[in-house]
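Bench notes, bay 3.
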Amino acid sequence: MSNPRLRTLTAPLIDENPITLQILGICSALAVTTSLATALTMSLALIAVLAGSSTAISLIRHHLPASIRLVVQITIIASLVIVADQFLRAFAFEMSQRLSIFVGLIVTNCVVLGRAESFALRNPVGASLLDAIGNGLGYSLILMLVALIREPLGSGSLFGWQVLPLASEGGWFQPLGFMLLAPSAFVLIGLLIWIIRSLRPEQVEADDYPILSSDSGEAGR
């Protein structure tokens, strides 16, 4: 892609997705994807915190001593998470209760600290903001895809609206209880990783310990 700014924004969607390629932020992806509403809310909160923290850290990067950079980064991220949590409590209290502690755990989300450490500390504000938004959108894309599968199969609904007639109410659909458990998200994310890496083999990591064939073993003697 010729435009580097556009590449910074769009690369994390698939090519450099923080979940499927870098395997970051898995814990929250397992926890909040039982419904599209919680997945969307979590996604918006993370994008806001990621964009704000990357922008702030990029602004002060030339004045930030290396010895305390992690402390400062975590302080900025934690402050923004508190603001996001309080905003939800004030304007979407029911959703805040549904998300429980997981908005607060954005502080420990590797995506946020990872982008601050690897990109915002080394790049100007504009590029850091684009990188943050791109990684937030890439993270959100996976969350929404997983929720789009789990909610209908687990409860027969989308965004809380019943779309499949439940057997308990005289319909034909019997919800799959497994889809409401965290392991189902783990399985779905694994399948997404497999599909993406099958279509894009360049994303497959080289083996740390390649298995030698008997022929190659003989040749090496």
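Next record in the batch:
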Amino acid sequence: MTSAPPQPPTDARAAFFAARPAIPGTVDLTVRIGTLTLANPVMPASGCFGPALGRLIPVEELGAVVTKTVFGTPRGGNAAHRLTEIHAGMVNSVGIPSRGAAGYLTDLHPRYTELGVPVIISVGAHRPGEYAPVISDLHGAGDAYELNVSCPNLDRLGTDIGADPDAILTVVRAARRVTDKPLIVKLPVLASSIAECALAAQEAGADAVCVANSIPALPLQPYTRSPALGNIIGGLSGPSIRPIVLRLVWLAARAVEIPVIACGGIETADDALDYFSVGARAVQVGTANFGRPFAMVEIVRALQQRCADNEAVGIRDLIDLWRVQ
């Protein structure tokens, strides 16, 4: 008996294009981050999207892409295991491996720029004085910079610079001296006052804050009670952290005039609208991308359709109906 010949793989990207709904009228989803205008408020979270996804999804429908965090010099990540799932979500301890600024410019930046949307370069460092030199070493590449002062898994303590308003002032002021491009400060969950941290970023010259990074967590293996991650601690992400981050976004948005970008457990357009209703002006999608690479584009399209269905010119008009004061 002769077996049937193998079928060619389905072109998921082409199918997704074909399924794009027609949006009646004009819906304005644009958002400004400093001097940068994004076509819509949806983008990936740093570390949760690589340029290779451009072969799978229509990235040009996103507002921007955010790179994996770039350090000044090459660095490896944390010891295995680097990722585990628990009932509350996903905990990762990748540790931000980086090819350094020079390696990023050579190997990755050309691939990001080919995607056809603004490129926001995430910048990392271990000490406040090390961020500005990384930006200088990037030689003006990118459309904006996100200062990652909040990664919880660079060391075993889960500490971060972004919990200290004075350290934020130092980081942002130094970065502002070396670039006139928009600066976004990615803040942590564990801060004594997210409002004070956001205000420090604004005072120092940031154009936006991103609230927030993953939550420091320590997952254990069942039965053995041994650490599930090689670094012992990692960052918890996923839908379980959304109510926590909603509160932080609400507090930050009430404290500052610059845009607040929400990041935490966003899977659908309704999740994004929740964040917009508490003051966010843009959203970043992280964990959802791993299971559903099309999640971000689905959110953009759903937001467009939701506005059209409600005869709203844009998101601001739509959420005025239920804004949380």
